[in-house]
Every structure is written in C-alpha cells, then in structure tokens.
Q: What sequence folds into this?
C-alpha cells in the first residue's frame, strides 16, 4: 500500500525544469518507458499527495530493477518535468507536477494514465 505523506518545510526541492521549458518530446520520451509509466501510475493511484519513492517502487511488484535503476527512472521523470522530488532526510518524496504538465500540455497526463498499460 502506498501512503501519502506530508513534506517537511525543511525538505530540499531537487532541481526541476520550469514549466516554460517543458517540451513535448522530452515528456513523451520519459513516458515511453514501461517502468517509468508504471511508477507514474502508482504515484497517480495514490492520490493527489506526495508519496515516498521507496513505497512507490514497492507497490509495483512487476518492476524488478535495482535501486539505482529505479532512481534513474525517477530522475528521468523529474528532468522531464513530470514529477517533483523533495529530499527529506534519507527519504525522497515524489509527486506528479499535474498542474504544471496540464498547463503546458492540456489533457496529456489524463490520456496517458487512462491508456491500457504494458501487455494489455
């Protein structure tokens, strides 16, 4: 089960591109990978609040990758501007930048998340 958590005011926001710099090519490339798409679906299914990256990966049992590979996937999602990540102690807290992506590419996230998943 993925639980939403609150972000401490002392948490460090990891670098992310501004909304104006989000490109459709980069966003679609990030979403084209089945592992990243699965991670994004787990985050979206958890609701509107942020979740712990470790809980997210654990909630996707079909993902059998090393922690470093999963971290790379989170970074690709963040660098594409799809997610926002906060460093809170030893934890990484992740949330979808739904408002930012929606402002730049209306309807894209809803369409991608509603589409059948890999193997469907």
A:
């Amino acid at each position: 089960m993925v639980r939403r958590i609150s972000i401490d005011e002392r948490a460090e926001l990891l670098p992310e591109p501004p909304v104006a710099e989000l490109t459709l090519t980069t966003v679609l490339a990030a979403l084209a990978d089945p592992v990243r798409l699965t991670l994004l679906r787990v985050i979206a299914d958890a609701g509107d609040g942020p979740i712990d990256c470790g809980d997210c990966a654990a909630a996707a049992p079909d993902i059998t990758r090393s922690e470093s590979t999963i971290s790379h996937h989170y970074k690709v999602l963040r660098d594409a501007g799809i997610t926002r990540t906060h460093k809170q102690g030893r934890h990484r807290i992740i949330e979808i930048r739904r408002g930012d992506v929606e402002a730049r590419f209306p309807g894209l996230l809803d369409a991608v998340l509603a589409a059948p998943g890999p193997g469907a």
